[in-house]
Amino acid sequence: xxxxxxxxxxxxxxxxxxxxxxxxxxxPYLGVSxxxxxxxxxxxxxTFVMTVAASMTWAINNLVxxxxxxxxxxxxxxxxxxxxxxxxxAGTVQLVEMFLRKFFPHLYDRFGIFLPLIxxxxxxxxCCLWIDVKGFNLVAGEQGVAVSWKFAQALLFGIGNGLxxxxxxxxxxxxxxxxxxxxxxxDFRGVAITLIVAAILAMAFMGFSGIGG
Length: 213
Prior knowledge:
Blueprint: H1 2-15, H2 26-31, H3 36-70, H4 81-103, H5 105-111, H6 122-133, H7 145-179, H8 191-205
Helix pairs in contact: 1-7, 3-4, 3-6, 3-7, 4-5, 4-6, 6-7, 7-8
């Protein structure tokens, strides 16, 4: 069991990296990767939101929607999944905003518009949707240990995706800090060289796909 959980975590960080494999969350990835400290702060904020969103949406989806649809009441609320995911993500982002404004006002000011935009970070919504289709959900008759086991899988998948986002954005920030002192051709400066670096990083991460082969 422990090995399987570690594989889920490792796969989410390296093989199915939300940014470098699925190209999700590119807005903060490109906009907040100028400095490593800012990139790390954004990565930790996204990791927290993604972890909470993954665990809460799993619980709501399986312990509320699934229960109601399979009980004698037979109420199918599956059409509310996307709305619930978005509301959970938005609420968690509000908690992060209040925390940073209270304890890290300097970092809060530096994030600017990109902090509330975590709500629309498609990497977080993608994580919630992946949990829906990757076999972490309950099936009829499962209870007890099965519930805890699948919740642990979903939780680690959310943590892994957040750490994968943090790894990708910190790598990009470190490279961009070095590029400021590099002799980049004029036509490639700015967005152009950033996209080229992102493409090279994505190709480099393709090498990790052999782990899951």
